[in-house]
Every structure is written in C-alpha cells, then in structure tokens.
Amino acid sequence: MAADGAVPIEGIAAKVLQGDRRALSRAISWIEDRSIEGRVLLDRLFVADARAHRVGITGPPGSGKSTLTSQLTQVLRERGARVGILAVDPSSPFTGGAILGDRIRMLAHHGDPGVYIRSMASRGSLGGLASTTYEASEAIEAAGFDWILIETVGVGQSEMEVVQVADTTVVVLVPESGDAVQMMKAGLMEAGDLFVINKYDREGGDRLFRELTLMLDLSRDRAGADPTSAGWTRTICRTVATRGDGTTELLDQIDAHRRHLRSDAGRWKDRQARRMDQRLKSLLRDRLLHDLERSGEIDRWVSESRRRILGGEASPYGIVDESVARLLQGGAGFHESARREGVKR
Amino acid sequence: MAADGAVPIEGIAAKVLQGDRRALSRAISWIEDRSIEGRVLLDRLFVADARAHRVGITGPPGSGKSTLTSQLTQVLRERGARVGILAVDPSSPFTGGAILGDRIRMLAHHGDPGVYIRSMASRGSLGGLASTTYEASEAIEAAGFDWILIETVGVGQSEMEVVQVADTTVVVLVPESGDAVQMMKAGLMEAGDLFVINKYDREGGDRLFRELTLMLDLSRDRAGADPTSAGWTRTICRTVATRGDGTTELLDQIDAHRRHLRSDAGRWKDRQARRMDQRLKSLLRDRLLHDLERSGEIDRWVSESRRRILGGEASPYGIVDESVARLLQGGAGFHESARREGVKR
C-alpha cells in the first residue's frame, strides 16, 4: 500500500517522533483528510502502551471552556508538562460567533514550544469525528506531549462521543446552565468524572453547587456502567476562569483522577482492554464505510437496485437486506485476518 | 426471515394501509427499534411513487418552529389535507427545557383524526436518525397522510441531515439569530428552499430581511449543486407565528415549491432517481453497521485483534485496514443480488 509514498510517510513519521511541529501538523491534516498516508502514519506511530493523559472538556456554549483550557495549560506548563490542545466543533452553525474570540484567548500560548494547539475542522464528517480526534491525539502523543486537552464547543451527542475518548471527562457548567435535573436527564451526570462550576461568582452559583452535590450523592454508584470508576468520588470544582480562581485545584483533581485510574494495575489493564475493544469496533465501522464508498462496486449496485425499485420490482429494504446478508456472508472469516501476519511494522 | 412473526406483521401492515393510528404507532416503534419486524413492514409498505409531500423545518432553538408547524397544520387541515408531524430532537441536552412547552402547543390538534404527531426519540442512535425519520415518514404516508412536516429542535449537522430527507426545506430564523453571513458560512443558505423570518415584529426583523435578500441574490444559482432547484426562486416569508401572521402565505410558498418540483416530468424523474441513489447508499451503510454489530463474528475479531495489539504485534490501524479489505473482497459481487430474485413482495 502506498509504495510510492512510502518515503515521505516514513520521513514524516520519524520527524513526528522527534517532536517536529510542522511534521505533526502535516500528519494531523492527513488524518483529517482520511487519506492512505494518514492510515499508514498512524500504524507507524502507534504504541500499545499509551502514556499521555487525555482530558475531555465539555459543557454548554459560553461556559468558558476555552478560558479554562488555557488556564489549565498554564498550570501544566508551570509544572513542566508539554500540552497538546484539540479544539473540536462539530455542532451548531449558530455558535460560530464565539469561536474566533475563544481562539484568540489561546494566543497566550503562542510561540511556546511546549504547547501545540490544533482545531479539528469537522463540518461534513460527523460520523468519524470522534475517531479522527482520537487519531490526532495519538499523533500528538507520539510527538512527545504529556497531556492532551480535548475541548468541544457544544454539548450535543457528537460532542459527548468526542470527549468520551478521553481518560478524564470534565463537565463545565455555569450558574445559568439551567437546573441539574435537566443535565442528569441528558446523561451529563454519568459522563463526567469531574464537574466544574465556572463563573462561580455569578448569581445562582451556590444553588447549582447544592443541586449538583445532591445529584452526585444520588447517582454515586457508576461502577455498574463503568467499572473503572469504582472507588472514584466525583468532585465539583468552583472556578472563575477569567481570573484563574480555582484552576490549580481543578488540575489537582484531574491529576488525582489520572492517578486513580492507574492505581490498580489489574483494573487499569481491564480498562485499556475495554477501550481497545470499543476503538476496534469504531475503527472497523469507520473504515468499512469509507472504503465501501470509495469502491466503484457500490455505484454499480446502486444503479441496478434503483432500476428495479423504480420499476416496482422490489423495495429498497428488501434489496439492502439481501445485499448486506450477502456481503457479510461473503466476507465470513474476515476476522481470520487478526490471526494472520497483518501489516509489517 | 421472521417466519413466526409473519402473521402479525402482515396484520399491522394491512391496518396501517387502512389508516389505523394504533397500528401506525406500533409500526413506527418497530422502525425506531430497528427491529426485523420494522424492516419487513417497510418492505411491505413501500411504494415506488411517493405521493405525500415532505417538508423539513429547521432553525435555531427558540425560533418558533413548533408554533409554525402547528399553524401550517391548521391551514392544511382547513384545506382538507391530512397531516403527519415528526418532531425530531437529536441534539443538545441543554435545549431540553423547551421541548415540553413546544409539544404542549401541539395539543391544539389533539383528537383530530386528520393529524398524526410523533416524536422521534433519538438519543443514542445518532447515525441512523435521518434514516429512521425517513422510514417513519414512509409509514405515515402509507397510512394515507398527504403532508408530512418534519421539525427539528436544533440546527446541528445531524438536524440538517434529517430535514434534508424532505422535499422542501424551510429554514426558520428570528431577528436575534445573528447575522446572515454566519448562516451562509454554516451552509444554511444552500440548504433552504424557503426562508422564514419569524417573530418579525421584533427589533432587527427588517435588517435581517435586507441582509437575507442580499445573500439570496448573491447565491442565486444553486442549480450546480442541485439541478432540481433550477428555475426556483427562493423567497423569504415574514411571520409572527404566535398570531398566525404570514402562515397562510408561507404554506402557499411551500405549495408553490411542491408544484415547481413536479412541474417538469423529466426533472422530477431525475430528482427521484438521485434521491433513491442517496437513500440506497445510506440504507446500505446503516444496515451493514447494524448487522455487523449484531453478528457474533465481530466479537471474535475484536478479542483476537486486541490480544495482538496489546501484545505489541500490530497496530489497530494495520489490522482494521486488512480486515476491511478482506471483508470487501470476500463480499465482492454482493451487488449481484440486485439482479437476482430478491425478496418476494
């Protein structure tokens, strides 16, 4: 595969591993483009034992996620860590106005070689966004960054999928976010390992803190859904990110969660295995769709099927069900490949 | 397939075709559940020559889409049409508060046998939502409804996908939606066949109307992207839906678009063919993923692959690429099925 392109890919891979930022940016562009180069590169950069810690930061528009991300980055830098930031916006066109302002705030870290910032341009690739975001984080990790902060703009379902590729998920709320019951319904209470009430100095901060505390008490046992969370007590941090108030404490909590995850070797291994299983399934789905779309065979199938359907011979449902059965049957044994030689590494 | 269940499915199908609402609701639940029953039923209900007109209604939260939908329904009822309404909410948990209020407004049509209202509960099935919504609209059409209004709660990308299964897409804006340049960037200007400025009596209504008019003049030629739109001049309706102002005019415009679409037999046929092609591809993708997840084979593949990866033998990327190639190769000729007998109808 990509015999001609082998030399530049290997060159880029080597440079990424040396921490070359320009090579890293090119690598992420390949990943975003879902190109063959990107796939080969990811294969080269992969390490089974991930070391970087991924923090997903989500919450409603206007809750100050970018400012918090910037503050966390500053504290991490003071502690000597190298920080990658992925800013993801898969959501509403109507939040567009806020983005530029948020990004400008991130200029604080411009020129710091220990900080790498990248926006994930995503419109039009909804399905694969969680996947490409995770892949980009693998490239950033390969370039030697210790922490990767994944920040989303909205809180739709796709954003939740994106942040949940993280090791620690931080849910950011503000006093005006609405009541906690609503958030619980939306699944946010289950998703968060840590909660932040940002802009805590505003009216309603104390009320939200009390509500949220009650909610967390009520839903304390998440171990059923996620065994990794056993023994972890979720906390609520109160911050005023624009002033930097509370951000050191927040980072300490995130770090406590990081240490908790790895504190029990058996549990950590189980968690890695479960994550890998999810990752494999999502990769298989993602690549299967992509490669199917690219193959010419699909076009022949479409035009022949359309002719029959519009001619009243069959319904799309009947045809698709039969074709899928045939495809899966024909491909039976595809899992055998896992036992064979696979790619040369 | 479903030999045991054949009798009840046929019974439900027959009742749906007679316009039985209870059977219709059960049918849509099967479709939402993505059950075998749903698939067989859709096959039975399918007609190649769709007659109902589908109107997608999208726009930012708070723009009054539900009120407009309710008003349009009222005017359609006065004209003797039977109306199905699909309310779709795939998006942010933070808009949850508005939904109940919106639905309550729809109670105006409660008890009217000529109106069928259904919410598409969707959390957790993001990928297939456009597909299941369209399928639900086919069941509603089979039950004898002439118009189907598909209303979304938000305006994220998934909502856009959902409304674009419609024949006519209406984009609803309000004076406070933000400026038109931003909307154009977001692709809303391309998506809309008709625009509504609702709550037109508020400050900024005239300014938005002027901006939008200018934008539409600038982007007049959509025929490149969508040949069906050739010859259609997009208009902007000004409404105050809470008072019913402008809704009759809006319906007239929607109806004009409906007639425009069908006015040229050749163009209409081309359009139906292109739509069917998209539908076939999206169905194939959807069912392939679903059936792959359900098959036990995927689990064997996952555990074997994980073992190799965590053992450092291969990367997930290498394994997945090879497995996908094998699956598609093994399934080569799957499109042959389109030429064979297929399902009995």
What features would you describe in this structure?
The structure is a homodimer of 345-residue chains. Chain A is an alpha/beta fold. Helices cover 52% and strands 11% of the residues of chain A. Chain A is built from 14 helices and 7 strands. In chain A, strands 3-2-4-1-5-6-7 form a 7-stranded parallel sheet, sandwiched between helices. In chain A, strand 2 (83-88), helix 5 (96-105) and strand 3 form a beta-alpha-beta unit. In chain A, helix 1 (6-17) packs across helix 3 (36-45), helix 4 (65-78) packs across helix 11 and helix 6 (129-142) packs parallel to helix 7. The longest helix of chain A is centred in the C-terminal third of the chain and has 30 residues, at 265-294. Chain A is globular. Mean pLDDT of chain A is 81; it is low at 1-6, 91-101 and 337-345. The interface between A and B is large, with 94 and 94 residues.
Number of helices of chain A: 14
> On the 0-100 scale, what is the average pLDDT of chain A?
81
Measured as a percent range, the helix fraction of chain A is: 40-55%
Number of strands of chain A: 7
Query: Strand order of the main beta sheet of chain A, please?
Result: 3-2-4-1-5-6-7
The parts of chain A where pLDDT drops under 50 for at least 5 residues are 1-6, 91-101, 337-345
Rg over C-alpha atoms of chain A, rounded to the nearest angstrom: 22 Å
For the terminal residues of chain A, how far apart are their CA atoms? 13 Å
Greatest interface: A-B, 94 and 94 residues
Assembly form of the protein? homodimer
- Amount of beta strand of chain A: 5-15%
H/E series of chain A: HHHEHEHEHEHEHHEHEHHHH
Which structural class best describes the helix and strand composition of chain A? Answer: alpha/beta
The dominant shape of chain A is globular
Note the main sheet of chain A.
7 strands, parallel
